[in-house]
C-alpha cells in the first residue's frame, strides 16, 4: 500500500497528560501512561495488523480507523483497515477512506487485531467469531458499556471520542501524526461531539481539534461534507420523519418513527437515517429524543431504537437494560416491542429517573 504522507511533528507544546481509566482484564488502571509501553511494544512487534471498527460506522468509527491505521502505516507497519459496511458517503472525502476494505482476506495471516470504537466484540459484525481468534486483540474504546473483551484493553468513558484516545496514544508513544491521519482524528471528535454542540465537548477535545486544524485539517471541509451536503432522498426521508414526531411526558420526550415503507418510498438508505433523531432533540423543552426505525433484516428484533438525551437523563442505562449500549447522552438498542409499546416503556423509564 503506497500512501503519500505529510508528517506532523509531535509538538512539544502538546497538552498535559489527562487522567483516565483503563481496563486490564477486570482491573482498573489509573492512567494511560502506565499502559502505553505495553501497547507500543505490541504494535512494534506485530508483523501484520488488522484494524476494525463497528458496523454501520459513524465518524468516530471511520476516523479512528484512519487516525491509527495511517499512523501505523507511516511507521512502516503492514496494516489492513476493515469495516463490514462501506464507508458512508459523507466520510468518503477523508484521505485514506478508499483504503478501508470490506474483505479481510486471510484472517489467519494477522497476528494482531485492533478493535476501535466498539462496545463489544460482536459489533465487528458477521466475522466477529473468526476475528476473535487472532492472537493479540487491542480494544480501544470510550463506551461505558464496553465489555473489556481484548487481550489488551484501553478504555476511557470520559473521552469525547475514540479518536481522542488515538491522539493520546500517539503522543504518549512519541509518534508523528501524518496529516492524513489528522483528518480522521478531527472528524471523530467533530461527529461524536455533534459538531462541538454536545455535553462531551470539553477542553481536551477542543485543544486536539485546534491542533489538527493547525496541522492542516480544514474544518470547513469537514463540516460541509458531513452537515451541509444532502441527497434528495435524505430530504424526503427527513420530511416523513418530522411528520411522525410525537411528544409525550409533558413535552419532555419526543419520538420519531421510520418504517420500511418510508425507506422504499423515498429511496433513502439506512445510512441516511443517521442523525435524524437530533431534529427531535432540538425541540424546545425536550429532554430526550428517540428515533424508532424498522430494520431491513431482523425478524427477531425488528426495531432499532436510537436515543439522544440531555444531561438529566442516562440514555445508556435504558439501552443496557434492553440489551444495547452507548453513552449517557447517546445510546441505542434493538427490540421486538411495537413502536407504541416502546414509547410507553421509554416514558416510564425517564419518569423513573425523576424527569
From TrEMBL:
InterPro entries: DDH_dom, DHH_sf, DHHA1_dom, Oligoribo/pAp-PDE_c-di-AMP_PDE. Residues 262-349 form the DHHA1 domain. GO terms for molecular function: nucleic acid binding. Pfam families: DHH (PF01368), DHHA1 (PF02272). Signal peptide: none annotated. Residues 48-189 form the DDH domain. This is Bifunctional oligoribonuclease/PAP phosphatase NrnA. It comes from Desulfobotulus mexicanus.
